[in-house]
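Support reply, case 0932

Customer input (verbatim):
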Amino acid sequence: MSRPPRAVLCAERVSFRYEPATPLLDDWSATFHRGELVAVTGPSGRGKSTVLYLLGLMLRPTAGEVLLDGEPMQSRPDRERAAHRAARFGFVFQDAALDTTRTVLDNVLETALYRGDDRRRSRHRAHELLERFGVALRADARPGQVSGGQAQRIALCRALLGDPRIVLADEPTGNLDPASSEVVFTALREQAARGAAVVVVTHDPALVGRCDRELVL
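Our regenerated output:
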């Protein structure tokens, strides 16, 4: 009998609220396995982005627990949580979240600095990714000099630079043309095929239909 896929990320009875009287999540549980692409859906304001911030150890739940490879993260100090984020996660934010004061290449290399990766190897890998996603010619540009579609592909390069085991993407195709959307989705699917757990917040029914499963909030 084959073993079930290993859960790399779990939320166990997680609750979260920004205001005491208004819970955004209440007793929510979910499990994410290596090699799968999961869509998180729900109406606007339901807490989809907050779910990614909780799973990505950027927020702490008010109750419940987030587990990384079976290890609870709630009581871990901020420094340890940050180290896990740098080493094991790749993030694609809804607005790309590029630093306008730095070049495109330096934005892509940002996570490598946190991990302490070899600079030369990281630059080589960054250029490979920029080439693959059609933004190599923009490596020395500033984020304000690139289009929205290019910015999102640059953000994807940054997220994939360290070959992360978990990818969390917030509306990664929300403002993209069909060709750019296909590039982004294909890259996320390929990362899942490499053994990563990929979690995508999306309103796009076509994208949801191509994921392995859907979680509705």
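We compared this against your earlier run and they match. Two observations from our side: The CA atoms of residues 144 and 192 lie 31 Å apart. The chain has a mean pLDDT of 89. Please reopen the case if you see a mismatch on your end.
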